[in-house]
Amino acid sequence: MYKIACLFLLIFTASCSAQTSVGVKGTLMCGKQIYNNAAVKLSYKHGTEGFKTLSETRQSPNGTFSITFESKDSKALKEIVLKIHHSCAATPMYKIVYLLITIFLINCFAIEPPSLNAQGTLMCGEKPLNGAKIQLLFSNKTGNSYELGETKSIQNGTYAITASIDPKALKIQMKIFHNCLDKLMPCKRTANINIPRTFITGAGEKPKWFNTYTMNMELIPSGEVMVCYSDLA
């Protein structure tokens, strides 16, 4: 007959309440021995209907477990219960102590939110373009643009940038501000590059990279503009 142990995970949900994706991991012991036959479930209280299972797993042979779930309702995070179905032959008092210790061994980790990654090398003729400013931006339904992040090319002309992004972003752009073939300060030539939404890396996915490879910024692309803001230096 399996016993059910229920833990209210209030100890860690406070630090994860801003995330819609949450994971729990830990190690279960039965006395001094590794316990490896437990079923682990994450559930939440659903009104008068009782508990509903969000996700479930079983331990690995070394006694560890790792379980994740995604919730669109952040309020549900405050009512999560970890259920451990096990048959460890422990006394009730020992079992209570064991569960209290286990709750401190559990680590909460947030799954990485959707992100956008870009990299490449900028040249000005045959010379690396150092100090060019690269921005990632996106537009929403209202047409407003928001900056996701920025970086600068280094001495060898390379750059790499990573930023979190709303997966519902309608338009994604990369802007490159530079002075190749133009030394007017603080004005900078500005190249605009549209990035397909297919380069958005979803939560938990292997990172995708939008790679511009080697670009010669002597090129004057269609739509290039001159921007003269003092903060572009």
Summed up, what is this model?
The chain has 233 residues and is mainly beta. It has helices at 10-16, 92-105, and strands at residues 3-8, 21-27, 29-30, 33-34, 39-45, 51-58, 64-70, 80-86, 107-110, 115-124, 127-128, 133-139, 145-152, 158-164, 171-178, 188-195, 200-201, 210-216, 225-227.
Could you state the CATH homologous superfamily of the largest domain? Immunoglobulins
Largest sheet: 5 strands, mixed
Shape: elongated
Strand portion: over 45%
Could you tell me the radius of gyration in angstroms?
26 Å
- Note the gap between the termini: 70 Å
Task: Tell me what the CATH architecture of the largest domain is.
Answer: Sandwich
The secondary-structure element order is EHEEEEEEEHEEEEEEEEEEE
- E-strand count: 19
Kindly state the percentage of residues in helix: under 10%
CATH class of the largest domain: Mainly Beta
The tally of structural domains comes to 2
Helix count, per DSSP? Answer: 2
| Low-confidence segments | 1-19, 91-110
Name the structural class.
Answer: mainly beta
CATH topology of the largest domain: Immunoglobulin-like
Q: Which whole number gives the mean pLDDT?
A: 76
